[in-house]
Design a protein that fits this description.
Strand order of the largest sheet: 3-1-5-6
Largest sheet: 4 strands, antiparallel
CATH superfamily of the largest domain: Immunoglobulins
CATH topology of the largest domain: Immunoglobulin-like
Number of helices: 2
CATH architecture of the largest domain: Sandwich
Radius of gyration: 42 Å
Number of domains: 3
Helix content: 10-25%
Oligomer: single chain
Strand content: 35-45%
Number of strands: 16
Structural class: alpha+beta
Length: 259
Amino acid sequence: MQNAGKAALAISSITASNNFTETNNCGSSLPAGGSCTINVAFAPLVGGLLNGNLTVVDNSNNQSGSSQSLKLTGWGEDFTLATASGSLSSATVAPGRTATYALSLGDTGVFDDSVALTCTGLPSESACTLSPNPAARRSNITVSVSTTAPSAVPPWTIPPVWPHFPLAQTALMMAVLLACVTWAVWASKEPGAGRWRTALLPLAAGLLLILVMAACGGGANQPSNPGTPAGTYTLTVTGTAGSGSTALSHNVTLTLTVQ
């Protein structure tokens, strides 16, 4: 901007309308014959053809509040995400089946970025697959939501090889076992001990085996899978291009009914 007058130009403001931003080094006063630089950047909030204005308010022609405007034009890039033509946004499946949706990724302006896709709102025991992901401009996208059928696994049991004994009987058998072992040790020191040792040691071993078998038994249950719960769920597929404050994001809502 240049001041062609013979007096200093008082500048009140320099502004750019929506979808455009400006920076300048003009300050609040521009001397006669002086000039300054105004830089305008295009910052579209939506896609398509966008118009705006750069406005300078000053005291030109000795009129306070005088304004000069410059028309601005830009083409914003963006993308669209929607259910594909002829496709449904809802699906009903039985647990264990897969629901499939078809989406369409469109573009406006000169959009040529890839779009990263995410899927939220899924019920438990289900998974969402998006293909392709990320997606290029003007892609057809397949959304597959797989569910899980319930699986009832019967408990398996290792039956006790011998019935459990009450605590009192177990203590009594332990005492008998201890007595037998003590007797076997004492008898081994007496003449003819070989015959008693031969008879008592197998008896002691048998009692010990009985106690071990009495302690065994019971069983363990294998966990069962309840499957995907029945109900109606709202899924959201979101597409994002770029990052930070300049990221573009759009989403589409899908309905999943599990019977």
